[in-house]
């Protein structure tokens, strides 16, 4: 990830929030295989686990599951079984894996928004504002449908993922007039057992987490004012969210600058 100073976000608490607000990650592996592409990616929802939410250093881990029929899963399974046949019983890939999370708040920025620079020099071009987190780590897989450890991992992961998305993503808390959340136990056990045999578990120990909020911080106040006004003038929900985010990130940049100058 290209991280220029204006856009880089190093606070892990902020990065965790972006991941949890946008849990559908793009999971990428690089596995040498005679049957499948070297690089494969899949969009799958993740759960991010950390022991201390206030920690500024704890990276934590990601948990997810994938369809066993997915070609990426097949390449993973082949790699692990080949190693096991050679006497290596580890279910952790030697290569790093990458998971990318992108905020839903993202939009094209027209040069027309740069009301300070465009009229004077015309030296402006269109760009795209967005926020994203990239996570690197070592992935361990649960591929044996008959193993107790696979069953235990999938039961825990599916329960956690369902509970998070029912309560947080959907807002089904059961409090007041809010509907009660759907629970995994609401589905028939035989059906769940069949479904679990059709998936594999993914557990990633995070080794590096990088994030950026590219929200016009590189521009001067005059142009940023134009960006905020331009997005608000779109009259759309996304435009309003973009304007608010641009303002918020500009304020954060100013606070960081003031703190550095006072050191």
TrEMBL record:
Coiled coil: none annotated. It comes from the Eukaryota. Residues 239-263 are annotated as: Disordered. InterPro entries: Split_barrel_FMN-bd, TR_PAI2-type. Pfam families: FMN_bind_2 (PF04299). Gene3D superfamilies: Electron Transport, Fmn-binding Protein, Chain A. This is Transcriptional regulator. The lineage of its organism: Eukaryota, Fungi, Dikarya, Ascomycota, Pezizomycotina.
